[in-house]
Structures are given as structure tokens and as C-alpha cells.
Amino acid sequence: MKIVVTSLFVDDQEKALKFYSEILGFVKKHDEPAGEYRWITLVSPGDEGGTELLLEPNNHPAAQAYQKKIYEDGIPATMFEVTDVQKEYERLVKHGVKFTMEPTNMNEFTFAILDDTCGNLIQIIQK
């Protein structure tokens, strides 16, 4: 078994696509109509055949409640690995990204938490 797509609830697909591609640097793989919404997936640069991140509309009340509650509780919706958290933090701050946690070392990991402007907290981690 292999993970091929994982989804992330977003409150605005277009805004999320812009943030995840233009700011974070993911590569758009699919952008297809899906009823009143779109099937938008992104992949890591250089890994176009890898796991796809689906920008899932949070139009269902359960999705909205879940997204809101974990955000309010400070729980990241997902985690992305980076080579150097400090450098990525500095790059993203220059792009206006807001962080709820600055780079923090814990044992062999360094991580930070950012606000994706689409209803989620995202953790970046360096192993």
C-alpha cells in the first residue's frame, strides 16, 4: 500500500493554490473542475510522481468545525520537511508569512509552525 494523495481542508481553493505554489514552492499537478469546486493537487518540486497534496474545500460543516478547532488549539494540520528550518523561516517571513512558533530545537528535530492563511497551521520540520 502507498499513500498517493493526502488532503488538506482549505477555506479558499484559489488563495490556497497561490500560497502553496507561489509562497511555499509546491508544484501544481492537477487543477480540474469538480462540480462547484476544483480538484487541485500539488507535489513537491523534483518529486512530480510523489504524494499529492489535495487542496480540499472545507464546505462540509464537519470539515469546518474540525479545521476551526485544531487551528484554535494550535495543532498543525500537516507537516512538511525542509532542509534548513531557520533558512526557510527567514525566507517565508520575507514573503509575509506569519508564524505561531519560531524555529525550535527538540532533540534531533527543529521545527516551526506557520499560518497558511487558508484556515490551517502548518509545521515545517528539519530532521
What does the secondary structure layout of this molecule look like, with pairings?
Layout: E1 5-10, H1 13-23, E2 27-34, E3 37-43, E4 52-57, H2 61-72, E5 78-81, H3 85-94, E6 99-106, E7 109-115, E8 121-126
Parallel strand pairs: 1-4, 5-8
Antiparallel strand pairs: 2-3, 3-4, 6-7, 7-8
Please report the total strand number as a whole number: 8
Task: Specify the CATH architecture.
Answer: Roll
- By secondary-structure content and strand pairing, the structural class works out as alpha/beta
Tally of separate helices: 3
- For this structure, the CATH topology is 2,3-Dihydroxybiphenyl 1,2-Dioxygenase, domain 1
Low-confidence stretches: none
Strand content: 35-45%
SSE succession: EHEEEHEHEEE
| Number of domain units | 1
CATH top level class name: Alpha Beta
Mean pLDDT reading: 97
N- and C-termini, Cα separation: 25 Å
- Mind telling me the CATH superfamily name? 2,3-Dihydroxybiphenyl 1,2-Dioxygenase, domain 1
Strand order of the largest sheet: 1-4-3-2
Q: What profile does the largest beta sheet have?
A: 4 strands, mixed
Helical amount: 25-40%
Q: Judging from the principal axes of the Cα atoms, what is the shape?
A: globular
Radius of gyration based on Cα positions = 15 Å
